[in-house]
Amino acid sequence: MNIKIDHINLTVRNLEESINWYKTMFGFELKEGELKDSSELWAIVGKDDSMICMYEENLKSPEMKDSAFHKIYHFGIRVSDKDDWEKRLQENNIKLLYGGVHKYPRSLSWYFFDPSGHKIEVSYAGNEPLRFA
Question: Of 24, 43, 45, 109, which one's alpha carbon is 20 to 30 angstroms from that of 122?
Answer without folding.
Answer: 43
